Structures are given as structure tokens and as C-alpha cells.
């Protein structure tokens, strides 16, 4: 089975510029509507209304705030349940050591040697809690005699199921965001195609009127106009760190497609040195992508020559961030 191809933008500029140009084109279309309708009867008042609706829909869709909130809340719920599991194990250690004094081999059965490695990883913590329940059941009589009874042991199984459910909800929210990000690129391309159709008509209508002809000329190169092959880089960045992304021929006019391929939000920012973090840039949420100019994400565009990515929006010890950067111009 082959992997699906990544959906690419049809245009060679940043998302914000394309959307704004579409808004300007809508105004120019309205101001010259009689000529457009005469040229193509489909381009009438209702066409303008539908065009405006399309622009407003993609502008609203681009914010994606509701889905971001859903994922943020599911992540917070998962972390809260992780903490509950960690706290329960820490309290349980008193009874384990009371039941098996100085028996470090038995302590290892309860996960003492694994805890530090898994305490921050939800998948591993689910397995840890499952094993903890099984071992506790194995030694139920001894633990009960020490004061950790069957009700407390059953609580381990309950916490394991609750943690598994919280993880599933978080994964579901990630899938919704991944689908939404793909759908947004589809809508952006649809808007671009519609805008291009209007511009092509405008250039045909006003081919002898230089002033109005220029209103319908794209202010950027089309995505296929560049003879350069795109530079695509992948990388990871650890929690609380800032990584340097080495992009050749980077300038303030460069158009970048920034993609967050991991589960943690990342911040991309233009700087004048590797690893520097001036606090600006753009936040890209998990499984999302944005097309931007390097200038727009640089605190000081006159001196910025380097792209950095920071993984400092989540708590310490969070999973590695994963990104993709594409440079075509």
C-alpha cells in the first residue's frame, strides 16, 4: 500500500497574502461588475456574493481555534490523569516497602526500575499501570495484610482504564486537527483557483486598459514559475530547546511552508543567530501547516537570516517536537 501524497498549496505566496489579494480582487470585481457580466454572464452579483462567502469561510477556517481548544483540553485532561496515576504509585510505595522490606527485586516487579523512564510518556505509563495492577493482584494477600486492600488494588485497574480513555480522546483530537489542516489546504486552493479565474477574466477584459489590467495581475509568482527545486527539511526538537534550521539562500522575501508533524505546539521564528529566541514568530499547532514569508515571522526582518524553531510552549519533559520546512522561493 502506498502512502498518500501530501497536499500542497497551489500558489507561491503566504496564506495571508493570498487571502488578502482575494479580498482586493473581490472589490475590483464589484467596481467593474458590468464589464465582467458582459464578458461572462456567470460573473454576476450572486457570483460576487458567493466569492465573498468563500473568502470569509477560509479566513475563519484558518484560525482553527475550536479544534485547537479541543486538543489543548484533551491534553490537559490526559496530563491530569497521568499525575493521578503517578501520585497513586508514589503513595502505594509505602505499602510495597512495608510488605517487602529491603526486597529490591520484588520492588522491581512493581516497576521501581521503570518508573522514571515512563512517568512522562502516556503510552508507557498505561502499560506500567497495567503491570502494576497484575503484580499487585499476584501479591494481594501480602499487600492486604499490610493495609493495601482489594479496594485499593482495584483502583489501579480503574486508573489504568481512565488513563487509556484519556489517551484515546487525545489521539482522536489529533486526528480531527490533521483532517482539518488538510481540509484547509483544499479550501485555500479552491479560493486561489477562483481568484485566478477572476484575474484571468479581468486581464482578458482590460487587455487594452493598462491601469485596470494591472488590478488583476497576481502580485507574486505562480507556484510553478520557479525553476528551483523546493528545499524540504525535517527535524526534531526536544522540550525546552530551540533548534536551528539551516536553509540556503534564505531572505526576507522567502516563502516558507511550516508544518508541525508532532504532538506538541512549536514556534518558528526568524533570528540573526542559531538558537536565539527573541520571543516572536508564529505558533504552529500539532498536525497543522502555514505558508508564511520569512519577513513576517522575524522580529527584526532587516537582520534576520536564520530560521529557528522553539519547543517551549509545553511543559518540561514533554515529547519531542517534529517539524517540516519547505522553501521554494
Molecular structure report:
With 329 residues, the protein is an alpha+beta fold. The chain has two domains: 211 residues; 97 residues, Jelly Rolls, CATH 2.60.120. Helices cover 52% and strands 14% of the residues. The chain has ten helices and eight strands. The strands form two sheets. Strands 1-8-3-6 form a four-stranded antiparallel beta sheet, with no helix packed on it. The chain has a four-stranded antiparallel beta sheet with strand order 2-7-4-5, with no helix packed on it. Helix 1 crosses helix 9 and helix 4 runs antiparallel to helix 9. It starts with 14 loop residues before the first helix and ends with a strand.
Chart the SSEs and their pairings.
Elements: H1 15-31, H2 33-39, H3 45-63, H4 65-99, H5 104-109, H6 115-118, H7 122-138, H8 140-145, H9 150-205, H10 210-214, E1 231-237, E2 241-245, E3 255-260, E4 266-271, E5 282-284, E6 289-293, E7 306-311, E8 321-327
Antiparallel strand pairs: 1-8, 2-7, 3-6, 3-8, 4-5, 4-7
Helix pairs in contact: 1-3, 1-9, 3-9, 4-9, 7-9
